[in-house]
Amino acid sequence: MLNPQSAGSGAERARFAEMSNYQSVIRIVVFGDVGERSLKEIARQVEDDLASLPSISRVETTGTGQYEVSVEVPTHQLRALGLTLDDIAAAIRVESLELSAGSIESRDSEIRVRTVGQRYNQYEFEDVGILTLEDGTVVRLGDVAVVRDDFQENRILVRHMGRPAAFVEVFRADDESISEVASAVHDHISGITRPSLPPGVEVSILNDESQTYSERVELLIRNGVLGLLLVMISLALFMEIRLALWVVMGLMTSGIGALAAMLGFEVSINTISLFVFVLAIGIIVDDAIVVSENIYDERQRGTSAVQAAIRGARRIKKPLTFAVLTSMAAFTPVFFIPGGIGEIWRALPIVVISMLFISLVESLFVLPSHLSYLHGPDCSPANRIDLFFWRCQTFANTLLRRFVEGPLDTVLRVATKHPALIAASTVGVLAVSVCLVPAGLVKTTFADVIEGDFVNAHLEMPEGTSSQRTLEVAEELEQAGRRVLDRLSEQLPDGAPHLLSEVLVLVGGAPRLEGGGVVPHASLNPEPHVAAVEFKLISAQRRDISTVAVAQAWREEVGFLPHVRGVDFSGEVIDLGSPVEAILSHPDPDRLVEIADGVVDGLRDIEGVFDVRSDHAPGVREMQLELKPAGRVAGLTLDQLARQARAAFFGAEALRIQRGREEVKVLVRLPEEERNSITDIERYLVRTPQGAELPLMQVASMTPGRAPTLIRRRDNQRVVTVTAEVDRAVISASEANHTLANSILAEFAEDDPGFGYVYGGEQQQQQESLGAMQRGFVMVLFAMYAMLAISLRSYTKPLIVMAIIPFGMVGVVLGHAMLGAYLGATSILGFFGLAGVVVNDSLVMIDFIDERLREGAHPREAIIEGAKSRFRPIALTSVTTFLGFTPMILEPSIQAQFLKPFAASLGIGIVITTAILVVLVPALMAVYLRINSRGRVAAAFA
User: Fold this and answer.
1) Taking 60 as the threshold, does the pLDDT of residue 938 lie above it?
2) Which residue, 375, 533, 536, 579, has most beta carbons within 10 Å?
């Protein structure tokens, strides 16, 4: 058990809290030109009213100070009465209590005995008797002291639109609907809260997650519907309309099954899970297309409808099953990703794998039944609609047939005759594409920016700065931000709304990463030198400028601020840490500080790197007291000196009372005017055990110094963290970290063996996440190889299929180059999905080539015929995947920008990679047959 005394006399008791799964839904701000106490009580009333609603389970009030009863006794009163501050604290303690005295039993009942006299408010404490004179006169506390029932001196200051404010935050549990909670809050605020507010007090919804959620849902549903329509149109151009409709129905069935899987794995319906459903539109139809194509092909040969359905499904069941299994395996590395990225994208493998599995079952066991009624080749259109689709299909199939028998046939014959040329060409394309990344033509990042509606500046002044001075600098930041938003708003078209919605200034606590407001569980001791300025912009759906761009313009407007320790600007919803963050360690604290300063100077010399700062601070100025020999001669002990000094300038704690929902301290101290200068310390009279009063400077030495407000340790080592931001238009985070490691940190490590460092922030997340993805992907490759070996009954043919996987990077890189998107962790997730699709297509193609070989076809002709026969379903799967992503690729909304890297990897990447696959797989099969036959069929490829 933790011993409170081990932390030192007067230390606060440690507080333990259980982590909960509550999520913030709405943040309400109550503000107005009223007293702080009135504002807090109004916010508490709003909290109580909302908590009483059946659909709301948790509400919290934040941004308000803690109550405190301060008893201020002047020095002359203490001397007149011959008392000390500790004496008065003890008098308050013994005159304010409630104590049970047991009970007595009468003949009829039991009667409890209890002594009452607990004091709770200012007037009751003023009535406490602290001394009885010889004539019987009782000196009461109110006679000699000023009792203030107010807030703690160091507390959080909140200003909303320039007026004092407090927050009321509403949460929801996992089993509660975000829309129901939000609707209940809005109804209550508009119908009950606003009409009942006193004059001068207003209430505003600072952030509503349900609104943001609705906007993103609308965005994704719109893109999903457009993608589904494009997929249906593409299928209708090449398939019978009934067949295309049944393929789409299978997609819907898979989606319903995925919802059940999400329920089982406790995955909520959010932006990412909805996006996964959108991307699944193009992926999940692949197996249905393959089955439908086989059944359609059998039917066009004249086979009866039922037999065509049976034969087509049987023919494709084995390669299709293993193809789907490999696609499912391709998404499993996401399960290995730790931290923030893994949590964000957790829905991806769960939704896609469940949909793939259900789609496989539906394609093999349900779809053939529906397609057993397909029309035969001699069927003629019965009406104008059928005639229209028949003409469209005839035209599209004619063009496709001409391409297959013309250009594709020519390319395949070259590929099978000169496979080395094709292999060398594709490897060259891969090398050139990959080189675009280190060349800087395709920018890289780890975490894609997720657009929100808040832009904030986190201000840190030197330790010891008063809250009022911090507020003044924060207001300067606010004015600079307002100028920026006014200037940007003037550049908008006529009639466009102003970018600014609301402004928030917070002193004494850290801002939220997103959504505005104060952190719900703020520090027990507010930090007066820390502040945050937050601008809420209009909804992202109504503006074309991103929060990141606003933050950069704000940073440039502010420029250099003297006497400020640091200012960080941010416009991101999710913060995975600084792009550049190094955690430095050294056994010598002084040397550690020197190294940290050197690292800061080195980073500032790198172009595109800004907001460089170290978390080392010189500390707060302090006056260190040490007992002199003269003090010991006077009978004083160090404990007595320390307690009297603490009581005078901090306060002697008389007791703590539970008042309502808060624990309130009662402190006895000197008045503020007697404890606000160094001379007050020097003149303070210390009482000796004999009753004499001596100036503090006579019994104690006073040495100025500095005390660290925070000591950071990592693995039992003293550490200092250096962080920096980067301008992505000038330098990427990976380039900045490479320069840091190889130029700056390497030099210190070479000169000083005791120096060590590790990466933190975004770089640490990147190393952990990419390392986990790499390990997971290696395991998946082994699993893919095993499944392909079983399906193809060969140990070497799976290598041909898997050789296509690296070429997926060609499509990924070129897709990002076309869209101007950053290559990052989200792009790698898209590459995993792309790998599953290309393995699927390659496996089906090789399976058909093997079938032609088993039928006795000429080796070269078998390869060409197999590739040509599978080109139609492969092309359809690629086209449908691309079209499924097309609305997202073309989406102009800034809220969708963080999803574009995934769309670029899988949407555009599948088209480019398929073009490589169609020629590379036949070329590799030609090489395989030549090697495997030991030259016996070499002439066949001549």
Assistant:
1) no
2) 533
| Amino acid (one-letter) located at 796 | T
* Cβ pair 692, 617 in contact under 8 A: no
CA dist 914 and 899 (Å) reads 22
698 token code pair: 């006579």
CB 656 within 8 A of CB 664: yes
pLDDT in tens, 417-474: 899 999 999 999 999 998 988 877 887 776 666 667 888 888 888 877 888 888 999 9
* Burial of 334 per CB tally in 10 Å (0-12, 13-18, 19+): buried
User: Given the DSSP bridges, would you call strands 163-172 and 110-115 parallel, antiparallel or unpaired?
Assistant: unpaired
CA–CA gap between residue 463 and residue 459 (Å, rounded): 12
Per DSSP, the residues of 364-382 read HHTHHHHGGG---TT----
How many angstroms separate the CA atoms of 328 and 326, rounded?
5
Side-chain half-sphere CA neighbours of 260 within 13 A: 10
Give residue-wise pLDDT tens across range 378-408: 666 666 776 777 777 778 788 888 988 889 9
The H or E element spanning position 501 is strand 500-507
Instruction: Give, for 887, the enclosing helix (H) or strand (E).
Output: helix 859-890
Strands 500-507 and 99-105: unpaired
Least confident range from 24-28, 120-124, 247-251: namely: 247-251
Residue with tokens 């594409």: 433
Angstrom distance (rounded) from CA 63 to CA 509: 9
Do the Cβ atoms of 509 and 156 come closer than 8 Å? yes
Answer whether residue 21 shows pLDDT above 70. no
Q: Helix count (H) and strand count (E) of the chain?
A: 33, 26
Question: Degrees (nearest 5) of the Cα angle 437, 440, 441?
Answer: 80
Token code pair at residue 316: 């494709």
How is residue 406 written in tokens?
A: 């013309």
Q: For 649, phi and psi rounded to 5 degrees?
A: -105, -20
Give the Å distances, CA to CA, from 832 to 78, 366, 840, 897: 77, 29, 13, 20
Question: Do residues 64 and 645 lie in contact, with contact meaning Cβ atoms separated by under 8 Å?
Answer: no
User: Please, which residues have CB within 8 angstroms of residue 933's CB and are 6 or more apart in sequence?
Assistant: 859
| Reduced DSSP (H G I as helix, E B as strand, rest coil) percent helix, strand, coil of the chain, to 5 | 55, 20, 25
Q: Which residue has the tokens 């990976």?
A: 734
Q: Look at the block and give the residue holding tokens 């060590």.
A: 756
Residue 430 CA to residue 447 CA, distance in Å, equals 25
Contact (CB, 8 A) for 731 and 604: no
The amino acid sitting at 192 is I
Question: Could you give the angle at which helices 859-890 and 909-932 cross, rounded to 10 degrees?
Answer: 160
Maximum alpha-carbon separation in the chain: 130
Q: How far is CA 712 from the centre of its chain?
A: 24
Q: Which of 133, 97, 132 is nearest to 116 (CA)?
A: 97
Residue 758: alpha-carbon gap to chain centroid: 22
Closest CA to 540 of 572, 585, 567: 572
With beta carbons less than 8 A apart as the criterion, state whether 761 and 577 touch: yes
Q: What is the mean pLDDT of the chain?
A: 82
Compute φ and ψ for 504, nearest 5 degrees. -135, 135
A 10 A CB-CB count for 178 gives 19
**Cα gap 616→595, rounded to integer Å:** 11
What are the tokens at 415?
A: 């590929």
CA angle 212, 893, 276 (to 5 degrees): 70
8 SS3 class:
coil
Spatial distance between the Cα atoms of 622 and 205, rounded to a whole number of angstroms:
43
- C-alpha dihedral (741, 744, 747, 753), degrees to nearest 10: -70
The reported pLDDT for the residue numbered 378 is: 63
Give residue-wise pLDDT tens across range 189-216. 998 899 999 998 999 988 887 777 777 6
pLDDT of residue 776: 82
